[in-house]
Amino acid sequence: MKLVLKIWRQKDAADRGRLVRYEVDGLSPDMSFLEVLDVLNERLTAAGDEPVAFDHDCREGICGACGVVIDGTAHGPQKATTTCQLHLRHFADGQTVTVEPWRARAFPVVKDLVVDRGALDRIIEAGGYITAPTGSAPEAHATPVPKPAADRAFEAAACIGCGACVAACPNGSAMLFTAAKATHLGTLPQGEPERLPRAAAMAAAQDAEGFGGCTNTGECTAVCPKAIPLEVIGSLNRDALEATLRLG
Ligand code: SF4
Ligand code: FES
Q: What SUPFAM superfamilies does this protein map onto (predicted)?
């Protein structure tokens, strides 16, 4: 099959950037969207042209590196699917597809489809961890975890830090990401003691990085490849408010 790709090309952060049209044929419906970019890049390289820069690592929907905006939707048209797991069978032969990088103030474009998502790492640095004394691993059953808490933590822990929620949000908010991380840790007994200061610190870091505020539009959860529920944002807001009232 064949696709007509209109891909955002931008030399560096200072370049204005533009969409460039490419026709890519000889594709299989079983190829992933990243493999289409691979094919295009092989042909560009063979022709002596600059290949399209894009981020990727696992290609299994795990690492969160690969996101791009496909026809206006973060990670493309398939629900709960990362760009690397999006297959061509979901596109029509000959379809024109527009491919752009994440667009958000806190995610500056580095080159072509690659953005700097370091702001998410700095939110984690602000509190996305559990303080624990070092030493040998504790006995597995020493800290019982109730099943509902384990399930909730597991659901939130599915966040892969891809940033699609930010790209889809009209406010450029990272609240779904931040709340998923805070909920994952704060729901477990090991993370509960730091739940309030963690929520306050991570929410403050989110604001300091230039992400927008959440107005509950729900675009984030609609594009999230791991279907993180909007409800976690309520939990984070409650914990951040409680932290302000109790800890000052
Ligand atoms: S909440 Fe979903 S969309 Fe946002 S970073 Fe995590 S996995 Fe990606
Ligand atoms: S390359 Fe790792 S999630 Fe897509």
A: 2Fe-2S ferredoxin-like, alpha-helical ferredoxin
How confident is the model over 193-230, as pLDDT tens digits? Answer: 999 999 999 999 999 999 999 999 999 999 999 999 99
Q: Which residues contact 92 (CB under 8 A, 6 or more apart)?
A: none
Tell me the pLDDT tens digit for each residue of 150-171: 999 999 999 999 999 999 999 9
Which atom of ligand 1 is nearest the CA belonging to 220? Answer: 3
Ligand 2 centroid from CA 57, angstroms: 6
Burial class (CB in 10 A: 0-12, 13-18, 19+), 4: middle
> What is the total count of domains within the chain?
2
> Cβ–Cβ contacts within 10 Å for residue 201, how many?
19
Our answer on whether the CB atom of 164 is closer than 6 Å to any ligand 2 atom is no
- Print the domain residue range for 221: 118-131+143-247
Distance 60 CA to ligand 2 centre (A): 6
Whether 87 is in the pocket of ligand 2, judged by its Cβ within 6 Å, is: no
pLDDT in tens, 81-134: 999 999 999 999 999 999 999 999 999 999 999 999 999 999 999 999 999 777
Tell me how far the alpha carbon of residue 163 lies from the centroid of ligand 1, in angstroms. 6
Sequence-distant (6+) residues with CB within 8 A of 209 are 106, 119, 122, 123, 174
Stated pTM of the model: 0.95
Shared-domain flag, residues 124 and 243: yes
**DSSP classification of residue 194:** G
Asked whether 74 lines ligand 1 (CB < 6 A), one says no
Nearest residue (by CA) to ligand 2, atom 3, is: 61
Shared domain check, 103 and 37: yes
Q: What is the Å distance from ligand 1's center to 49 Cα?
A: 34
